[in-house]
Design a protein that fits this description.
The protein is of the alpha/beta class. It is built from 12 helices and 17 strands.
Length: about 400
């Protein structure tokens, strides 16, 4: 090889790549140049000595889904084509270094049998399953071998987040990197970033600041509720719903009313470990007297009977197959759900009640997660008689 020198500039926060660690973890938002910085570093390492580099991710159906194109582009950009040859699924350096590109989910046995890996780069590491991690880490076992993980954080229970952000191993450098750490952050992305910051701040925090996802397309009531002060003075007809706590779940009571196409939630009662005789006191926090009708979870008829025996007007709300989904659709049918600031638990649930997400494809599934829904369940019960059961009629035609 010649004495040609390549000048590569990467954001300062990636300087840890030059130090000696087992794990290098770089996470954060879009535009932080994580992939570019790591790819440039690996190109330099491959030119300095003969090494084998595995570039992987959880799902890779074709080479086009890997960082293969990024390496090819950088090789051309720095004018070092004479040192590299690009194969169908690999890149080789004239000094014997090689880059291998493999997916984990469908090729884990192939990865497991790959010997002599010096550096493993896991791109989009937030999507890597625990099973893949458990197999991959022992596979990278050559003396002084290194593992580099780059990702935009999504959920706090993703394996990579738990392993390296919550409980980082001692031989690791963990660095959060965002767009403001990238001196070459392009103006076209800056305009997109500023627009999202002004119009959807919580999404901005996730996409650009690298915060965990809190509000997303999976949020069931995204865009359907507001938190603001209002007066219930003059309201004559309230609806009250109640959800009974099981085990560690709280008992909840919600008071609401409907006005001008909006659903207003003005009071809540919320408590853990509420004993049977004290459930009535929970109702008293929400309604001024015992003559308001309360609709409660029909799964506890004995509890309903007990409360009724104390002089309260309480009955079980109806349930049917799909009643949760029908209730969600009905609540979403209001122009807006207006929540009083004093209803802090209800606000939290409206923010966090979500549909399931397929972690392999990131697709939102039409299945509500049974969590952050105790106030919302009470709300559904209170609206029980207004929620219509969906019925599908199949017309067989004239026989």
């Amino acid at each position: 090889m010649s004495n040609q020198k390549i000048r590569i500039e990467v954001p300062h926060k990636f300087s840890g790549l030059l130090d000696d660690y087992r794990y290098y973890v770089y996470y954060g938002g879009r535009g932080s140049a994580k992939s570019w910085a790591v790819a440039q570093y690996l190109l330099c390492k491959s030119l300095q000595s003969q090494i084998k580099i595995l570039c992987t991710r959880e799902l890779q159906n074709s080479i086009l889904e890997s960082v293969y194109s990024l390496f090819k582009g950088l090789i051309v950009r720095y004018g070092i084509e004479q040192y590299f040859s690009t194969k169908l699924a690999s890149i080789e350096c004239i000094n014997g270094s090689s880059f291998i590109f493999k997916g984990l989910a469908h090729n884990i046995e192939s990865v497991k049998s790959t010997e002599g890996i010096d550096i493993c780069w896991i791109e989009e590491a937030d999507k890597v399953s625990q099973n893949s991690w458990d197999i991959l880490i022992p596979t990278i076992r050559k003396n002084n071998s290194k593992i580099i993980a780059t990702f935009n954080p999504t959920f706090d229970d993703d394996p990579v987040y738990t392993m390296f952000i919550v409980n980082p191993p001692p031989d690791a450098i963990v660095q959060k990197v965002n767009y403001n750490d990238n001196p070459h952050f392009p103006d076209v992305l800056r305009k997109e970033m500023e627009h999202m910051k002004a119009t959807d701040y919580e999404k901005y925090l996730h996409v650009w600041e690298g915060d965990l996802r809190t509000i997303s397309d999976a949020q069931i009531f995204k865009g359907k509720y507001v938190v603001q002060d209002f007066s219930s003075e003059g309201v004559e007809s309230f609806r009250i719903g109640m959800d009974f706590g099981f085990s560690k779940d709280p008992s909840t009571v919600i008071r609401c009313f409907i006005r001008s196409g909006n659903l207003y939630i003005d009071r809540e009662a919320y408590g853990h470990g509420i004993e049977l005789p004290d459930l009535a006191h929970l109702i008293n926090k929400v309604v001024p007297n015992r003559f308001y009708k309360v609709r409660a979870d029909c799964a506890r008829p004995e509890t309903i009977s007990f409360i009724k025996g104390m002089g309260y007007q309480i009955e079980g709300a109806k349930k049917w197959s799909g009643s949760v989904e029908d209730g969600i659709e009905y609540i979403r049918s209001f122009h807006s759900v207006v929540i009083h600031p004093s209803c802090v638990h209800t606000i939290t649930e409206f923010k966090r009640y979500s549909f399931k997400i397929d972690k392999r494809t990131n697709e939102v599934l039409p299945i509500p997660i049974d969590d952050f829904n105790h106030c919302i369940d009470a709300l559904r019960y209170g609206l029980d008689d207004l929620i219509k059961k969906k019925v599908t009629i199949y017309d067989t035609g004239v026989l």
